[in-house]
Amino acid sequence: MTSQRTLNRLFTLHSWAGIVTGLLMFIVCFSGAVVVFKHEIDLWANPSLAQLPRSQKPASLDTVLAQLHTRYPGAMVETIALPDAVNPSYFAFVRERGAPANTRTKVALRSDTGTVVGPVDSQLGQYLRMLHVFLFFGPRWIVGFLGVAMLVLIATGIVIHRKILAELFTQRWGRSFRVVMSDLHKSAGIWGLGFHILIATTGAWMGLAPLFEQGYKYVTTSTDATASKPASKAEASEPVPMQSLDALYATAQQAVPGLEARYVSLRRWGSSTAEVGFTGNLRDHLASTARVDIHAVTGVSKKVHDPRTAGFWSLVNGLMEPLHFGDFGGLALKWLYFFLGMTPAFLSISGTLIWLDARQQRRREAEAAQATAGGIAAAG
């Protein structure tokens, strides 16, 4: 049985954790609820793309790359996104010659012919994802820390509100503002408890796991290994013949059976050190972090990551993103994630309003007590 003193301390921790992180928690949770429709939002913001035909047999990657080089001669094609269940088109990120290092153009291409349609006008869905994952410019560990704070709020809330079953159906509409908001706050938190634990855990994992991994590598890597490598020789001015992208994709699928690439990353294309990375999902499996890196000149695989065979923690890591964003169960699951994802945003608002109302109530009580004491002193 938890003592009243412990309950008071947990209530204080719960209140201040919510107040300190309230604004950021609202931004992250609200944007996260909306970003489950990222691809649908991008199509809505670019209505012309939704009218493009969907091909049962999309144009080859080689055709797409050739079309991009024809339309943007001298530009560097960095990434090609393949058509999926929502987007009927190819997309590519192109860095044009002379453009700043951090400036890329997102280009749409028809899936049936690979013909370049043109630059994408709006990337609203991507901006929302950047807001949710990085708060636009912050490191991802900040959002990971908010996931930990959310777990603290959940744990303290469970201990504080011990009569969970009774509070599931408690809503006193005729009472004061604070009582009404408190009942809504508790019932919303309880009804969405399982989802909140899932979102907080996966968000904390994705935000903080890379930080711990980098720290572990830094500690365990010897100084000899971290010494600066000698500068590589300058690349020849003549372009080097590359392997076929489609043949390289076939090699990647042989290395990781069931690989369904979502993105193709091209690095130093046209040089003797060119590499291609195929990243995507696994057919009939939830993990979404499968990746194969291949030397683009020789066609030899350099790095293969199959979460099914890379160990337990790698498999867990591969499950985090689909579980967090709910992009594995179609439109119905996205709507469920949207409505449940709005509840943490409501909890951050309602918790703040309850705290402010309680503070004002304490101030009014203190002023009334002071006035009473003053009246008694004057009467004496």
Notable features of this structure?
8-stranded antiparallel beta sheet, alpha+beta
Give an overview in words.
The protein is α+β, with helices and mostly antiparallel strands and 380 residues long. 56% of the residues lie in helices and 14% in strands. The protein is built from 13 helices and eight strands. Strands 4-3-2-1-5-6-7-8 form an eight-stranded antiparallel beta sheet, sandwiched between helices. Strand 1 and strand 2 form a beta hairpin. Helix 1 crosses helix 13 and helix 9 crosses helix 12. The radius of gyration is 27 Å and the shape is elongated. About 2% of the residues have low confidence.
